[in-house]
Amino acid sequence: MAEITTMTVMMTVMMTAMMAVFGVAGNAAASQKPNIIFFVADDLGWNDVGWHNPSMLTPNLNRYAAQGVILNSSYVQYFCSPSRNAFMTGYFPYHTGLQHGVILEGEPRYVPTNFTMLPKLLKTAGYATHMVGKWHLGMCNWKYTPTYRGFDSYFGYYNGAEDYYTHETKDGGYDLRNDTLVAKDPGQSHFDYLFTDHTLKVISEHDTSTPLYLYLPFHLCHNPLQVPKEYEQRYSHIHTQDRRTYCGMVTMMDESFGNITQALDSRGLLDNTLLVFTTDYCADPCLVSTERRSGDLRRQQLAVTRGQDHILGGRYPGCCLCLEQEFAAKEILRQRRDDARSRLVPYHTTPGRCGPRYKDYKLMTGSPGRFNDWYPLPRSQGEEDATHEEDAKPHWKPQLYNIRNDPEERHDLADTEPQTMKMMMDRLHKWMASGVPPQNTPIDPRGDPKNWGGVWTPGWC
Ligand SMILES: *[C@@H]1O[C@H](CO)[C@@H](O)[C@H](O)[C@H]1NC(C)=O
Ligand SMILES: *[C@@H]1O[C@H](CO)[C@@H](O)[C@H](O)[C@H]1NC(C)=O
Ligand SMILES: *[C@@H]1O[C@H](CO)[C@@H](O)[C@H](O)[C@H]1NC(C)=O
Ligand SMILES: *[C@@H]1O[C@H](CO)[C@@H](O)[C@H](O)[C@H]1NC(C)=O
Asked: Ligand 1 centre from 438 Cα, in Å?
């Protein structure tokens, strides 16, 4: 089946489930409402899963992918906060102000409270709602944090990344919460064990007469590259340390997925369940050259302002696997228009830098910046990977690709299909007219963990 058709079918499935959830399609008894399990890998590359790359050890995911629907032409937003914004609100980030990069540590930025998040709606529909993992949607005030936005329980961290063992962010500051309380971890366990164990506890304590919504955005496989040796050792044939560690991280994530699905299954919780596994973004292109972590075969899109990278639009035929979604589902329901189903509008601050998609076409405007290239897999036989230099040209013309025929975006159609080009530009301008300015604001020193006993703590905006 062609990709777009597959995606439409999946969207229909998703929409049916969502409509049931939102009470749009009648009022089924609570017991008939499907459980919703939503796994989010962090920065997982297209080629970092077993069914695209047999050298990756992901047996549990492979099994579900084989039984499920693989949406291989579904795109996610670029970077963590924009994608998670879409998962939680159903709105494109250019409608919430979160379209421009990730929320930085100490940046007083968040999903505005007038956007109701999915867990809150699911609670209204009778669900138990639990989250384990990374938030990254605002923490400068309690009202922006998970337990205030619809989650019955939360175990995880508010920022974007931290040390897997010390649970401290890059610039210092401890970040691990059990609901609203600081969760101590004197044993310094790897995050993935903590998250998996906590999820198993949530599952074992869940009252199965209530529908369950589990949102599981774990830390793996985001940098820093850290994994217990036993996972890394399964890739001992890979000589490049970073790639070996990264592959180990993927396998550890797969094991968590396996343990969690097994626990769900053993409680009968998979029988009436919408199970989604996706990634928020492709493998971190910043690591492609610096840490030689290149799981991706297709080039990526970044715009670079001096010393700082901004992703414009993951140029990615489905950053990953099983049931990928364009999580504009709510926006689609709201608009009830077909064209909303086939578009995705990742975009940047300036109107000149966008990556909208419509049906088979994808338009790219503005500089795609660094790493705008195709990356070979790192070699596994003792040779160093090739590194890639910036591919920066001073002037970029808008580019047009037919992603059904040319998913790798190698043949620019801008000159040969001027009418399509015009149609895409017209649509882009129409969509952008409904956008709001990005909320990006300077770092607020009041948020510094030094002011809060060394712990990232809400209360400074
Ligand atoms: C997606 O899957 C379809 C159906 O198996 C296949 O024809 C297509 O080539 C795949 N696309 C990509 C980008 O792998
Ligand atoms: C939330 O408020 C902003 C700013 O007033 C507005 O642009 C946006 O449409 C509102 N969103 C919703 C879902 O009400
Ligand atoms: C989190 O708190 C709950 C009770 O509030 C407790 O049962 C659980 O063990 C705690 N988990 C961790 C990992 O601290
Ligand atoms: C998965 O479960 C097995 C068996 O209990 C355990 O040994 C392993 O550590 C678990 N893996 C993770 C990532 O939690």
From this structure: 35
- Our answer to whether residue 198 is catalytic in this structure is no
**Active site includes 136?**
yes
Q: From the CB of 228, is ligand 4 less than 6 Å away?
A: no
Distance separating alpha carbons of residues 231 and 241, to the nearest angstrom = 13
CB burial class (10 A; 0-12, 13-18, 19+) of residue 126?
A: middle
To test the pocket of ligand 1, the residue of 73, 322, 360, 405 to mutate (highest count of ligand atoms within 8 Å of its CB) is 73
**CB burial readout 83-93, b (16+ within 10 A) else e:** bbbbbbbbbbb
Does ligand 4 have an atom closer than 6 angstroms to the CB of 255? yes
Q: Which of 52, 95, 130, 136 is catalytic?
A: 136
Across the 461 residues of the chain, what is the mean pLDDT of every consecutive 10-residue run?
29 38 41 85 79 87 82 71 86 83 93 96 97 97 98 97 96 96 96 98 97 96 92 89 86 97 93 83 47 35 22 25 29 42 46 71 70 52 41 69 80 95 88 83 96 98 96
Structure tokens at 443: 């770092």
- Edge-to-edge strand order for the sheet containing 35-41? 181-182, 177-178, 153-157, 128-134, 212-217, 35-41, 273-279
**Catalytic one of 52, 80, 219, 320:** 80
Q: What is the pLDDT of residue 22?
A: 42
Does 259 contact ligand 4 (Cβ within 6 A)?
Answer: yes
Residues having CB within 6 Å of any atom of ligand 3: 178, 183, 198
Instruction: Compute the distance between CA of residue 348 and CA of residue 366 in angstroms, rounded to an integer.
Output: 10
Q: Which ligand is nearest to the CA of 298?
A: 1
> What is this structure's pTM?
0.84
> Is 321 within 8 Å of 65 (Cβ atoms)?
yes
Token duo for residue 20: 């049931």
